[in-house]
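Data availability excerpt. The first of two example chains:
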Amino acid sequence: MNINQLAKEVHDNAVAHGWWDKPPVLPEALCLIHAELSAALREYQDGAPLIYGTCALAAEDCKFSGVCDRVGRPRGGRGIDGPCKPEGIAVELADVILRTLDLMAALGVDVDAVVMAKHKYNLAAQEVEDRRRGNA
């Protein structure tokens, strides 16, 4: 799956869950992305690990089962069956990526092309800066 395919899947899921019933204006969408960054900062300030919580219903289904404290026990054993929710700094940063992909897909952006163009620019700009500083 490439980034455009992931962005489409993320956006389709957001649409299915009602996030785009009334399309947000750009400032509102950007604030939602910023809110996820703020949530990551809160996790950091609270001393949270990168990943914790309930990552899967069964440890064998979760690559993070070694660091999650409630694998296989949704909501501490009380609550509903179904997919469990991972928490932590890395998870909030993943939300930033997902909300960004959702927005870019909604705007019709070729995410693959934009990300690669910006990455290539950054690589070239770093080479120029290294030469300027005499580090090349």
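And the second chain:
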Amino acid sequence: MNGQIAAALRGEFGDVAFTSRTAGSELFVNPLMGVYFAVDLLAIAASVGYLERSRDTETMFDVALAIENHRETVPRRVRRPFPH
């Protein structure tokens, strides 16, 4: 797996033989394999303003309603004009 990621970081993709051990094998290197990241889920969840409101939801509609109710309590930012 590390070899595939290294190949993706070099810009290679498709069926790439990156070591003598993998030569002759069909190994697909996805160009996005070099884009790995990790997150702290608890830190992200703590920053979600509607987390408590959505805790006991059961359907997508319930979640949408929780978000909508939360948005009504948050001050709206002034929209900046789009630069031309």
